[in-house]
Amino acid sequence: MTARSARLSMGFSNVGHFFAHLLMLLYPTVVLALEGRFGMTYGELLALSIPGYVLFGAAALPAGWLGDRWSAEGMMVLYFVGTGMAAVLTGLASGPLGLALGLSLIGLFGSIYHPVGVAWLVRNAESRGKALGWNGIFGSLGLGVSALVAGAFTQFISWRAAFIVPGLLCALTGVALAVFVRDGSVVAARSDRKPAPDASRADIVRAFFVLSITMLGTGLVAQMTTVALPKIFAERLTALTDGGILGAGGFVSLVFLFSGAAQIVGGWLADRYSLKAVYVVCWALQVPFVVVAATLFNLPLLATVIVVQCLGIFALPAENVLLVTFTPARWRATAFGAKFVLSLGVSSLGVPIIAMIYDRTGDFYWLFMTMALITAIVAAAALFLPGSASRPVAAVAPAE
Question: On the chain, which terminus has fewer CB atoms closer than 10 Å, C or N?
Fold first, then answer.
């Protein structure tokens, strides 16, 4: 493996992280323009995306296994081309069935990225902390601009363009990666450029059970926040927006872009303090802020949501480094696949919870209360992590 191959691999991994979050989160903003269309309510239209969110996480485990056993580079080409063309098909949908099918395919192909792309990055990185930090920033950028991109295309062109244009760009990136793999510019890395010692079996087993609980909880909170926030801002930031889709989408992007930059702080904390302490404290501090946010509107709500998102981002580096620390290198993609089955697949239950709460109450108060309860459970469960988790092997980890 050459240095050029490693740089290209990390570059494509970063771009892949951007598209993973961008394409998966276009619909929560686009759905605002579809409300009432096809004779469906907001909750019913939002439910069309549930299969895609389930597949985005559930298919991560087999994707990670294939990445470990077959080819990470081949899986990444499949990811770019498949996800991009699925987005194009979604933009061409003529009804609810077509939308549900397109969104499901985005989730299926998109599930490849997190288990394969992150493990691919770690394997090629000489300086893991720096590489994972930049990767996290690209993911946060995709998360941050998704609502803005969806809102801008929907308001100035059409909701279809919001899927078709980014989808074509993603597919073309996959074609470029295939060319580099074919001509030998990108070659497979058979081992880590910077290996780390394995943890003890007892700590691995203990961390597995604890992280299974916490990653499910963090995934639920993340799903609820990212999916519901466009609608929350459309209804509660009326003094800051004109009530339009672009205004709500713009403030959602502001929240995610601002909090995404907080990964640098999270990495600094994980590099200097106990991973367990950082993880517990960041989640415990979120509880009172989420409770308060349930009753807020306009600027106070915006500021509180930013604080909550920043605290969650602070905890992400510790969570991902904990997973790397307690996973043998040869099983890393599979381990990340298992993580995203929980944090993205099972946690997609958050979407029907949003739909049910809103359609029954017409508000998001009880959604905030539900998120506060889950956040408290995560903080409590993290107290049982192995104490040896105070020596990180990397400083920063990617956003989810």
Answer: N
Alpha-carbon span 54 to 250, nearest angstrom = 27
Averaged pLDDT for residues 339-364: 83
Rounded to whole angstroms, the Cα distance separating 329 from 325 reads: 9
Domains defined for the chain, CATH in brackets: 3-382 (1.20.1250.20)
pLDDT score recorded for residue 81: 97
Question: CA–CA separation, 366 vs 375, rounded Å?
Answer: 14
Does position 386 have pLDDT exceeding 60, yes or no?
A: yes
Q: Is 104 or 189 the better-scoring residue by pLDDT?
A: 104
The pLDDT tens digits of the residues spanning 224-237 come to: 998 899 889 988 99
Model confidence pLDDT, tens digit, residues 16-69: 999 999 999 899 889 888 887 888 888 889 889 989 988 888 888 899 888 888
